[in-house]
Amino acid sequence: MTNPMMTLNTLLEKSSDADILREMIGFASQRLMEMEVGARTGAEYGHKDPDRLAQRNGYRARDWDTRAGTVELQIPKLRKGSYFPGFLEPRRMAEKALTAVIQEAYIQGISTRSVDDLVKAMGMDGI
Known about the structure:
This protein has helices spanning 4-12, 17-41, 89-108, 112-121, and strands at 56-66, 69-78. The protein is an alpha+beta fold.
């Protein structure tokens, strides 16, 4: 396990504020996922417990687009059952809404350049 103070000092030495913010978001989200998985499995990472409910089975990578930029997450996997972070759920609904807006704009005849500007203004990459 890494030393949290050492990690924080490393973050503060970085040059760009956006980099610091993105790294802090990534660090906090990883800790949150580890706590959620620890509660779901009945034991923290690396601890042995006879009352354990499930076991970990590695990680899967996923990019999370935030206002500070793209954060690379390592989502824990479980041997039995599944785990998906609760803080990523609203994103799925936002993507569906954005897709519906883009489809409606296309049907209404709005130029793709205007829709692309709208998407970029919302903090996402172009279409």
